[in-house]
């Protein structure tokens, strides 16, 4: 066997500089700017008072810190790992969607949860917290492009079509990824299914297969396919449901053969990673560890050394020996922070021109200042409130997930 020749730490540093050439890497543009100067602001929540638009990063920092001090223990700030640095620094707790859901459920004596994530996460926090707790999403335009690919009406129609095509005796359990609207979580709760995250998708699928022959998995085809494959389900027993086509573009034979019916949804951030990027990283850094998120495509996950949730990625890199090198296939803000926190290792994003999660990025400090100062003045801005019927059934689906071993 040929021994792997690893570059020295200084050679790694040289390669890293080349790999993240500022001329080609737009992530260098991720600098704090007043809200009005953010190029994408036109598509963000517009009704923020004018005074906040032009505040400098320093002024916003001063006002957010002062507001947090006034609100004290009445407030908890939760921050998703994909948030930019100038937002995550205010978080009392950070985590992936699963960890944040648990944290929201565990809060006691808190009146306000400021959720620095995206819409579906804030909805889950509202469902899991006591009724008197107000959950606030700083910018209402912070959605999730993947969650938007599963429109509830399309899912309900698909459910009926699948049952019509399979006929009597069909035993399909719906499983929704956390990245979905509360109404879809309620739907799976009512139909005997559950919610999963990338941390527990395998356990959720096992739970579902104990209760049915087939799983309808939405909205992320890649998480469904990667998890099913790792559990031993062949690719040809997982059929893709294209919600734009009659009968999802499938035949009754395909459906009958399938163990999993995968919704045709994806994450625009994670779908950018490719096998070619992994091959390049391996050429440039012999012996490198490649770790990717399971929202990446199946061939990318197969080509990587490991895959897992953001929490798993954090643990793997943080606990790795000094001098090791890591190419990471997930969102750039998290990878940059991970690199910063591990100066004794080489850590970089697989995609040298990767963009941040563009919807998570919509949480700008100006929105934090606005919503927090609103709370002090006695008005709750941007509260996320799930109606009672939706809450009842989505809580069932979420609690099934939280009860997984
Ligand atoms: S990274 Fe992808 S799945 Fe996660 S919030 Fe952003 S768009 Fe949605």
CATH level 1 class label of the largest domain: Alpha Beta
Major beta sheet, specifics?
5 strands, parallel
Helix content: 40-55%
CATH topology label of the largest domain: Rossmann fold
The beta-strand count equals 13
CATH architecture annotation name of the largest domain:
3-Layer(aba) Sandwich
Strand content: 5-15%
What strand line-up does the widest sheet have? 6-5-7-9-8
Structural class: alpha/beta
The name of the CATH superfamily of the largest domain reads NadA-like
| Shape type | globular
Number of domains: 3
Describe the 3D structure.
There is one protein chain. This protein is α/β, with parallel strands linked by helices. It folds into three domains: 9-26 and 270-349, Rossmann fold, CATH 3.40.50.10800; 31-143 and 360-388, NadA-like (Rossmann fold, 3-Layer(aba) Sandwich); 147-268, 3-Layer(aba) Sandwich (Rossmann fold). The chain is built from 18 helices and 13 strands. Strands 6-5-7-9-8 form a five-stranded parallel β-sheet, with helices on both faces. The chain has a four-stranded parallel β-sheet with strand order 2-1-3-4, with helices on both faces. A four-stranded parallel β-sheet has the order 11-10-12-13, with helices on both faces. Helix 4 (85-88) links the parallel strand 1 and strand 2 (93-95). Helix 3 packs parallel to helix 17 (365-377), helix 5 (97-106) packs parallel to helix 6 and helix 9 crosses helix 18 (388-402). Mean pLDDT is 91; it is low at 1-9 and 15-28. Bound molecules: iron/sulfur cluster.
